[in-house]
């Protein structure tokens, strides 16, 4: 007589990935269809001592020619009993998830935190010290981001009401490009105001700087090389 440990069991039939995909697609389609045909459906739970008979039924409109699906809670409800209300809400949750899917998670709306003047000045100064022409730009930005966050993340700065968040490389790049653009615009405006035909006649050219040459900005006195970010 064969022992119970030697008994063979029928191997379970594996479910293919394609079958799972079709099943998930069918469920998703049901949720989308139900939400479209039943806008504003009630997901709010029943509450103790608040009699609301609309919580005892769930009516789901279906596409023609199907008639609406009508679901009714099969038990009597004592509206003053917490256990009864909990059971009712559990029943409603199961039915609503089947037809409409889970409640979408409420994600906080991201708030844009602007840069403070101290952060701008630090980035403008420290990025200007880097050798952009000879160095690896991605490595330089990664190093600047690390140093920037070590300097400011979590701090409260003068003139800023919010603690400084961690910044990313794209954020610092965009800020630095904007700072350089503002600096160049200011330089162009000053040159137009101070433009003199006698200066051009003496130099023989409107610009004495060759392409790629170091330029000194009169507003800050710092050197800026014409690199591409």
TrEMBL record:
Location of region: Disordered: 1-24, 187-215
Name of the protein in question: Uncharacterized protein
Biased composition (Low complexity): 1-16
Organism: Heterodermia speciosa
UniProt biased composition (Acidic residues): 190-213
């Amino acid at each position: 007589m064969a022992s119970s440990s030697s008994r063979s069991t029928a191997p379970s039939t594996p479910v293919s990935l394609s079958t799972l995909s079709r099943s998930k697609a069918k469920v998703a389609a049901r949720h989308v269809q139900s939400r479209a045909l039943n806008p504003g459906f009630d997901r709010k739970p029943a509450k103790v001592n608040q009699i609301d008979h609309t919580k005892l039924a769930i009516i789901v409109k279906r596409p023609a020619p199907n008639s609406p699906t009508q679901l009714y809670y099969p038990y009597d409800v004592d509206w003053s009993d917490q256990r009864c209300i909990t059971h009712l809400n559990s029943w409603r949750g199961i039915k609503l998830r089947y037809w409409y899917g889970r409640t979408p998670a409420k994600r906080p709306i991201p708030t844009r935190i602007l840069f403070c003047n101290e952060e701008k000045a630090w980035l403008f100064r420290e990025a200007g010290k880097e050798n952009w022409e000879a160095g690896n730009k991605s490595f330089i930005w990664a190093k600047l981001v690390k140093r920037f966050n070590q300097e400011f993340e979590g701090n409260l700065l003068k003139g800023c009401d919010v603690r400084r968040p961690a910044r990313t490389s794209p954020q610092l790049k965009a800020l630095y490009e904007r700072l350089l653009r503002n600096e160049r615009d200011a330089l162009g405006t000053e040159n137009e105001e101070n433009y003199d035909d006698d200066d051009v006649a003496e130099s023989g050219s409107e610009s004495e700087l060759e392409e790629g040459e170091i330029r000194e900005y009169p507003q800050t006195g710092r050197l800026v090389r014409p690199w591409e970010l």
